[in-house]
Write a structure and sequence with these properties.
This protein is mostly helical. The chain has five helices and no strands.
Length: 104
Amino acid sequence: MSIFQRSSRVLAIDGVAVSIVFLIMCVYFAVASPYFLSPDNIYNTFVESVSAVLLAAGLTFVLISGGIDLSIGSNIGLSAAATLFAIMNGAPPSLRYLPVSPPG
């Protein structure tokens, strides 16, 4: 088996190609900018991605159950708008997003 055949078999595994591209991008940005791997940038990246991770976790259950239709995106938008309306009109603190100051 040639190297090309082996590499194509490895890249055919789900997610491997995306992971390799992600690692290449991280190395590139780490070399290109001294601020990319700073603790503040890594902290901000994790804090800002929380909402996307929560949405992805919820949508995972929708995908697993097979309840896929066009209303998922509109329901997410409606939920965001209702939450914003509640926060602007004095919602209890348990519903508010309280930003945490970065370490250090």
